[in-house]
């Protein structure tokens, strides 16, 4: 079973040279720490920055420089700043290549629910609805099950939807799944030490297992 | 040049009345009109509609207006960090409209640009699309969203001049330039106000035409919501 950090490290391996990427709050934010140095990629923050850098040193925190999680950040060389309408023009206009988001539920046909809900109240969705409606390749990073043990990979989402038929791949603590065009979670890799039976047990939607499923390279 | 300068925040906001519709700039606590909000607290206003990306936190930003029960309706994309909001919403004292962030930005941009409505892919298949016109273009579905305009826009910039030209800094720009154009009366507060002619016209983000009043705020707190540092 993978930790949050290991999920982030595994997703980082999927990133390709030259991509513009939007990282959501939670596990996706961690991905930034593991993008290989030899790749030229640009991270977008939808509050108005292309070129997110590492968290600043304590003395360099700047209240005028935060990411979409309202955390202090830095800018890399070659960054650009813009307003919120411009940020979402980039997203809706198909200029962002990849979005990595957290989710509460994903359905077997690629629907996603990730409205922030706490104590029964819907608190909003920020930029996620715009990201899932864009043409960006959409990866989901999340735990396979809720805290009560119920699966987050479902036949149909039960919570309010963020987008329909938009998820390409799901990275959980148990494995990696793609969404088949005809519907279904196709298992691509399983996490080190995780059995097919455990994945079958914990996946509520249609699971497709074809041929030998490789075990992910282990993390040191 | 037309001089847009007013003395201070209380003078800038003196004619905001009960029931007014306000746009408030900022993302989280970054780039919010701190001085105008502080001045509003001392006005005994009721039934305001506040449009802003977030709802502040309990003791800063829009949270201060919530605490004074001055807001009847809040239009935002995310209201997560505010317990006072939750209390009033559950009690039924506060109306909330949640809008996807990109749609919120574009609706305000449209309001300022004289575009009454536009089609967007955002929200298709979700509750956001309920009751809205849906149309197909080139094989994809889009939904119709309307412009947003307001009686007043309260915005914050880094530097401004007496003609109302504005320059923002970092990610504190966010919704501020869009709101500047969508307010009937736009009140800009700046950290540094200079005479017209001192800002390089090449570097202006918001042209002064959108700004009706400008003042220099004092003692900006610029609170950080989440301090994150690397070792």
Q: Give start-end ranges of low-pLDDT stretches of chain A.
A: none
Count of domain modules of chain A: 1
Strand element count of chain B: 11
Helix content of chain B: 10-25%
What series of H and E elements makes up the topology of chain B?
A: HEHEHEHEHEEEEEHEE
Tell me which CATH architecture of chain A applies here.
3-Layer(aba) Sandwich
Shape field of chain A: globular
- Mean of the pLDDT scores of chain B? 96
Mean pLDDT of chain A: 95
Biggest β-sheet description of chain A: 10 strands, mixed
* Biggest sheet character of chain B: 8 strands, mixed
* Overall number of structural domains of chain B: 1
Assigned CATH class of chain B: Alpha Beta
Distance between the amino and carboxyl termini of chain B: 50 Å
**What structural category arises from helix and sheet content of chain A?**
alpha/beta
Q: From the 3D structure, determine the CATH topology of chain B.
A: Glutaconate Coenzyme A-transferase
Task: Please give the CATH class of chain A.
Answer: Alpha Beta
Protein described:
The complex is a heterodimer of chains A (220) and B (231). Chain A has helices spanning 4-12, 27-31, 84-92, 128-133, 196-202; strands at residues 20-23, 42-45, 49-53, 74-81, 98-101, 105-107, 112-113, 116-118, 121-124, 137-141, 153-154, 169-171, 175-179, 185-190, 207-208. By secondary structure, chain A is α/β, with parallel strands linked by helices. Chain A has a single domain, classed as Glutaconate Coenzyme A-transferase, CATH 3.40.1080.10. A ten-stranded mixed sheet of chain A has the order 4-3-2-1-5-10-12-13-14-15, with helices on both faces. Chain A has a three-stranded mixed sheet with strand order 7-6-11, with no helix packed on it. Chain A is globular and about 50 Å long. Chain B is of the alpha/beta class and 231 residues long. Chain B has a single domain (9-118, 147-216), classed as Glutaconate Coenzyme A-transferase (3-Layer(aba) Sandwich). Chain B contains six helices and eleven strands. Chain B has helices at residues 9-12, 34-41, 62-67, 83-90, 101-113, 176-182, and strands at residues 21-24, 48-51, 71-76, 95-98, 117-120, 134-137, 140-146, 150-161, 166-167, 183-194, 213-216. In chain B, helix 5 crosses helix 6. Chain B starts with 8 loop residues before the first helix and ends in a 15-residue tail after the last strand. The relative contact order of chain B is 0.19.
